[in-house]
């Protein structure tokens, strides 16, 4: 028995799975009923926070798969302390998020936002723009998405370093990796700071007033990780005070971003609605990852993308 937590739409391409198992599709309000007797749960609505409240009904559950790389919506104590295996959709969004990051870095360097505003006013104003070749970017988060970002930025001529659990040199994608625990001591060296770290108790609020004060006043901040990695009020104050030069934000601690947020109207801020990884066909790609793991699960084979529930992400050699 497979329970599938949906939002407004059912996941596509589920017919092959429906031929192999009884599938119960449910929205958040019906999740508890759908979980009773279910062996597996596919959290297709990956932003839903309904799983903890319905967990009491998970009387047979052995496997939970979430259709995202981040697992924080489902990683609550009941799941963490259980024997239920947790897998995620790592790998689907790596290249598309990397392209987004390169795009916003170019947008900052080439002053695209001001060009659009001037065009709207039919105003011809010549300016000079920045080069990104040779500029130094720090990617905070050294998992597959961070590595894809590093490779693309290097291909564009940028120098790239990383920040992760442990410091090291000679990394194939980052060269130097700084320890996240010592992050603030290194931030002043970078023109761009790109955040893609997973949300854990250790990383929540890691970019606060102290971190922004440690950055250069001409540096730009890019968040494609989780909104809760940032203390939003501290970011707003840093932008207003000129402690940093700008920010590109795809994720927020409250989503949708409230209409009265000052971030909407700041000239040096680019806002996008949690879409940096969402390429045409991404929903099908998410189902493909689940379908592969479903086949493995039915065959008794090792699952892909098994999350270490203590760490909050899929561990890797680095």
Q: Can you characterise this structure?
A:
One of its GO terms (molecular function) is NAD binding. It comes from Prauserella shujinwangii. Belongs to the D-isomer specific 2-hydroxyacid dehydrogenase family. Keywords: NAD, Oxidoreductase. The chain is an alpha/beta fold and about 325 residues long. It has two domains: about 1-90 and about 280-300, Rossmann fold, CATH 3.40.50.720; about 95-270, NAD(P)-binding Rossmann-like Domain (Rossmann fold, 3-Layer(aba) Sandwich), CATH 3.40.50.720. The chain has helices at about 15-20, 30-35, 50-55, 75-80, 95-110, 110-120, 145-155, 210-215, 230-240, 280-300, and strands spanning about 1-5, 25, 40-45, 65, 85, 135-140, 160-165, 170, 175-180, 190-195, 220-225, 245-250, 270. The strands form two sheets. It has an eight-stranded mixed beta sheet, covered by helices on one side. It has a five-stranded parallel beta sheet with strand order 2-1-3-4-5. α3 (about 50-55) links the parallel β3 and β4.
Specify the CATH homologous superfamily of the largest domain.
NAD(P)-binding Rossmann-like Domain
CATH arch. level architecture of the largest domain: 3-Layer(aba) Sandwich
Count, helices: 10
Helix content: 25-40%
Strand content: 15-25%
CATH class assignment of the largest domain: Alpha Beta
How many independent structural domains? Answer: 2
Structural class: alpha/beta
Coarse morphology: globular
Compute the gyration radius: what is it? 21 Å
Number of strands: 13
């Amino acid at each position: 028995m497979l329970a599938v937590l949906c939002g407004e739409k059912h996941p596509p391409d589920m017919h092959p799975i429906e031929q192999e198992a009884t599938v119960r599709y449910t929205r958040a309000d019906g999740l508890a009923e759908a979980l009773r007797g279910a062996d597996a749960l596919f959290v297709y609505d990956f932003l839903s926070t309904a799983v903890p409240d319905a967990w009491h009904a998970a009387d047979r559950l052995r496997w939970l798969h979430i259709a995202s790389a981040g697992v924080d919506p489902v990683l609550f104590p009941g799941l963490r302390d259980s024997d239920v295996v947790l897998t995620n959709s790592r790998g689907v969004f790596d290249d598309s998020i990397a392209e987004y990051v390169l795009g916003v870095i170019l947008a900052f360097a080439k002053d695209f936002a001001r060009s659009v505003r001037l065009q709207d006013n039919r105003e011809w104003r010549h300016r000079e723009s920045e080069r990104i070749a040779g500029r130094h970017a720090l990617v905070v988060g050294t998992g597959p998405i961070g590595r894809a970002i590093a490779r693309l930025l290097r291909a564009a001529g940028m120098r790239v370093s990383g920040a992760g659990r442990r410091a090291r040199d000679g990394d194939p994608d980052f060269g130097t990796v700084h320890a996240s625990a010592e992050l603030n001591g290194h931030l002043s060296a970078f023109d761009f700071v790109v955040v893609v770290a997973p949300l854990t108790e250790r990383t929540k609020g890691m970019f606060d007033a102290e971190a922004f004060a440690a950055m250069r006043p001409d540096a730009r901040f890019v968040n494609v990780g989780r909104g809760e990695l940032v203390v939003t009020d501290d970011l707003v104050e840093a932008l207003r005070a000129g402690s940093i030069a700008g920010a590109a934000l795809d994720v927020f601690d409250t989503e949708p971003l409230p209409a009265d947020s000052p971030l909407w109207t700041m000239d040096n801020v680019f806002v996008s609605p949690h879409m940096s990884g969402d390429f045409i066909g991404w929903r099908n790609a998410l189902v493909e990852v689940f379908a592969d793991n479903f086949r493995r699960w039915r065959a008794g084979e090792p699952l892909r993308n098994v999350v270490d529930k203590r760490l909050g992400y899929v561990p890797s050699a680095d």
